[in-house]
Amino acid sequence: MGKTGVLLINLGSPDGPDTASVRRYLREFLFDPRVIDIPPVQRWLLVYGVISIFRSPNSAHAYQKIWTTKGSPLVEAGRDLARRVQDILGDAYLVRIAMRYGKPSIASEVKAMLDAGVEKIHAFPLYPQYAGASTASSVEELWRVLSKEIAFPEVKIIGDFYDHPGFIASFAEVAKKHLADFHADHVLFSYHGLPEHQMQSADRSGQHCLKAPDCCQTITSVNRLCYRAQCFATTFALQKALGRTMEDSSLSFQSRLGRATWIQPYTDQELPILIKRGVKRLAVMCPAFVADCLETLEEIQIRAAEDWKALGGEALTLVPSLNSEEIWCRSVADMVK
Questions:
Q1: What average pLDDT does the chain have?
Q2: Which CATH fold would you assign to the domain 165-318?
Q3: Within 10 Å of residue 77's Cβ, how many Cβ atoms?
Q4: Is the pTM of this model over 0.85?
Q5: Which residue from 34, 106, 274, 298 has the least number of CB within 10 angstroms?
């Protein structure tokens, strides 16, 4: 029998931390209508005329703070994850890492699988919580690539895994090891944010999303694919695994862009609130990211830590992401199988 291809997909990274590379990456990323969902002409003017010109130098400076001798932490963690999952799954599988934006691209890795004669492709978007701007965009690109083929193998999509036991156990184990000697007063679960209107557009009923303060507290048939509700579910599962409550842990959303209202509460605005509550030692977990990247390493580990100290906090620590931890690699392999 032929092999089964396993395509692990993450969001992506620029080729380098220089302004030109970051500009190319931002143009590809932000021109996706699932990321910035405004009319094409307006999106072109915004991305090519404003963001890529004025944001690229600042973003390049941020990437320079986290770049390593091996390159992008996100890409390197993905490559290591693919190697380790390959070892676990064995010769019956062909495991590749691909990026939705940047390299290695979905197109190049699908071609490698087709050239190798795989009989099936299991596509695994590495986004724990479902969102149109991440999960749907990656699956859409996969189908765009495959649609150019005269024939292609059976394809299976491994969907969101926000409360999968292996995912929760993996993050809990990493957190317990990291927090053993930190003695955190509070754990903040910080997720990537999304514009509120994108959440509301995904609500087919038009009657549920953000209509009540507790609309995301429980997963139902109405909000099954609600990103914010899935973030709450992940938080509740991790609180239980870590022995935390809503008194000594909380949830927030980071990485806002533009003037639109994004889902709340905002991470940067939660910091002074926690200071006023008397929190001194803050641990931040980012369970929307399975690999450390700009949003975790620069935005939280560097900038948020600096802000915390400036506010009078004693210490802020970033709980590392899953990257290629052994327990996570085995959980990925289990989900594939």
A1: 95
A2: Rossmann fold (3.40.50)
A3: 23
A4: yes
A5: 34
